[in-house]
Amino acid sequence: MLHEIYQRLYYIPIIYAAYSYGLRGGLAAAVLSTLIYLPHLAQHSDNRVYAINQYAEMILFQVVGAVTGLLAGAERRERQRYEQTAAELQRAYDELRNTVNQLLIADRHASLGQMSAAIVHEIRNPLGGIKLYTSLLKTDVADRPDAQRTVGKISNAVGRMEAIVSQVLYFAREIRAMPVECDLTELVRESIDLAKSRKIDAAIEITCSSPKSLRTKVDPNLMTQALLNLLVALGAL
């Protein structure tokens, strides 16, 4: 009875090796168990029936090691696939959350831009009235130099406010580039002429060194505005 119990204990290391190391581990443990068991079989080789039963037992070692190793390998691969899928889902969730946050921020900015444009548009109307009344007041005080200077300051302040309003409306408006084929050299020269017409500091000398023609696809209005802003900024330094 003890021999029968000890004989079944061989399955413990076989199953453990197969579960831990897969098919190779299970077969290696089964072969090792068979080699350890062979001396006992040699002692009872004269008993044919018993020997056949023990040969079947050793074959069963190999079957248990192989089957357990295959199942353990399949389970391990399935677990790895599950972990990989979970990691990909987590990455997708993080990306989706970041995208939603960016959309919310963009929506807030768009709403803020629309609200700013509406407010600025409402401000423009009274500014027009102030400008008109300032012009009339300037005519009424034509014979009073002090009043003329005061009215001039008011007019300049109104002009600056109008410029700010125009800039806010420009940035609040959606800009869509419409590239067409044009001469980039000509755009640069036109921008220089416009900058000079705005009375940039005389200490700033603007020169243009470029090919006679450089044709490419750009939005001429946006390109001219960008170059003009750059030249005006240089003149203001």
Structure report:
With 237 residues, this protein is mainly α. The chain contains six helices and two strands, in the order ααααβαβα. A two-stranded antiparallel sheet has the order 1-2. Helix 2 packs antiparallel against helix 3 (48-140). It is rod-shaped, with a radius of gyration of 45 Å. The model has no long low-confidence stretch (mean pLDDT 79).
Portion of residues in beta strands equals under 5%
Structural class: mainly alpha
Shape: rod-shaped
User: Count of helical segments?
Assistant: 6
Number of strands: 2
Report the oligomer: single chain
The overall pLDDT average reads: 79
Order of helices and strands: HHHHEHEH
Identify the strand order in the major beta sheet.
1-2
- Euclidean distance between termini CA atoms: 104 Å
Low-confidence stretches: none
Largest sheet at a glance? 2 strands, antiparallel
Helix content: over 70%
Report the C-alpha radius of gyration, rounded.
Answer: 45 Å
Topology:
Layout: H1 2-8, H2 11-43, H3 48-140, H4 145-172, E1 180-183, H5 184-197, E2 215-218, H6 220-236
Antiparallel strand pairs: 1-2
Helix pairs in contact: 2-3, 3-4, 5-6
Key descriptive features of the protein:
rod-shaped, mainly alpha, 237 residues, two-stranded antiparallel ribbon
Short overview:
With 237 residues, this protein is mostly helical.
